[in-house]
Amino acid sequence: MTVQVQFFSYFKQLATEDPLTLVLPQHATVEDLLTCLRTRYPKLATLNRSTLVAVGVEYAAPNQVLHEADVVSLFPPVQGG
User: Fold this and answer.
1) Domains of the chain, residue spans
2) Of 1, 33, 42, 75, which cross-links 68 as Cys (Cβ 3.0–4.6 Å)?
3) May I ask the CATH architecture of the domain 2-75?
4) Residue 16, number of CB atoms within 10 A of its CB
5) What is the pLDDT of residues 38-66, one digit of tens each?
6) DSSP letter string over 3-20?
């Protein structure tokens, strides 16, 4: 299946491709996608604990199953004042 990955904030510089189209096996999860991205972009692996993931407009858990044509967004925690 094919999914699109969007990177936000400084994640764009770390990934160097935005958006990115990935081909994943059927029934792949968010964690499977993250594992693929960490292999492709090792600098993203260092931000593992501070990466927020959304599928569509909803935050996603690591065990969420992805579907064909999903749009996955990766971004750092939002801070404000």
Assistant:
1) 2-75
2) 1
3) Roll (3.10)
4) 11
5) 999 999 888 888 899 999 999 999 999 99
6) EEEEE-TTHHHHH--SSE
